Amino acid sequence: MENHLKYLRAEKSWSQSDLAERLDVSRQTVNSLERGKYDPSLPLAFKIAHVFARPIEEIFIAKEEKKR
Amino acid sequence: MSERIKSAASRYKVEFGGAMVLYGAVLFGAMYLSKNAEPGLWLTSLALSPVVPLILACIAFFRFYGSIDERERRMASDAAALSLVIGIFAALTLGFLKSFGVFYFEWDMLWFGPFLIALWSAVRSVLISKR
Asked: How far is it, in rounded angstroms, from Cα A8 to Cα A30?
């Protein structure tokens, strides 16, 4: 799964630590999410969507969806 | 790292470190006291006394496990599963070598726990570097 986390975070001028604080996760987890190394659970994905005030599908893109 | 996770990590270091120091003290204390002890309840108590600080260490670990985020929890669990598989294969390999008389490795059960913990730490470090 890919995501726009890095761009959304840059838009808000937040550091990875700032976002980690808002999501209550470690900075390393934010880094892994941004690099697409880790796919979040549904509750964390909802939390991310809430933090950026965007629908989940605007933040995360399934690989199958991208191929279409 | 969020402040909550940071404080949980600091608390874990203190609790786990304290339990390990206590483990060392109890282990050596029990070994010293057992020298002149007769077989019986006292000696059994001495032999089992190092388990108490280990239980404290386990409690500290599980408290920490409950406070880390989902990715770290996943890595800790994956590392535990992988370590178990590696540990089983290592035990089977040594068992086969011993049964066929090729190689005999003197293995004290006392080292099985530290071996699994060291293996878990190593596997977890590899997983962290990969993810």
From this structure: 12
| Alpha helices (H) in A24-62, listed in sequence order | 27-34, 42-52, 56-59
Full-model pTM: 0.78
DSSP category for residue A2: E
Which among B73, B128, B67, B131 has a CA at the least distance from the CA of A33? B131
Domain boundaries, chain A: 2-67
pLDDT band at residue B116, thresholds of 50, 70 and 90? confident
Whether this model's ipTM surpasses 0.90 comes out as no
B5 to A24: CB separation less than 8 angstroms, yes or no: yes
CATH level 2 (architecture), domain A2-67: Orthogonal Bundle (1.10)
Count of CB atoms situated within 10 Å of the CB of B4: 13
Q: Which member of B1, B5, B131 has the closest CB to residue A32?
A: B131
Which one of A25, A33, A48 would you mutate to disrupt binding with B, by most B Cβ within 10 Å of its Cβ? A25
